[in-house]
Amino acid sequence: MDITKVNMDLFCEKCNEDTIHVITYAGQKVIKAYCTKCHKEFHTNKDAALAAYTDEVINRIKTKPRRVKAELQSHPVKSVISMPARLITKFFRIEKEYKNIKKELE
Fold this sequence. Notes:
Number of strands: 4
Structural class: alpha+beta
Order of helices and strands: EEEEHH
Strand content: 25-35%
Strand order of the largest sheet: 1-2-3-4
Shape: elongated
Helix content: 55-70%
Largest sheet: 4 strands, antiparallel
Distance between the termini: 18 Å
């Protein structure tokens, strides 16, 4: 799950005008937004954001066998060669995602 930041022109209640806001997404879920003029931040509930991340990880685990099967069918040699390294690093990549999301929520 990637952390994505997007600039968007939105109405700020504190500035009482349309200003540029930075919207932070974790996957497809908005986790934070802030006004670039007054710097007022709007956070989602930390527990809800982490629960959404957990749901996405569970969904990725459920669909993994189907995705691996499709990959093996389309690129068998490349898949078999790269699989061991990807299996070893997967846990570290998930940990990095989790830490990035927690950092954004602080």
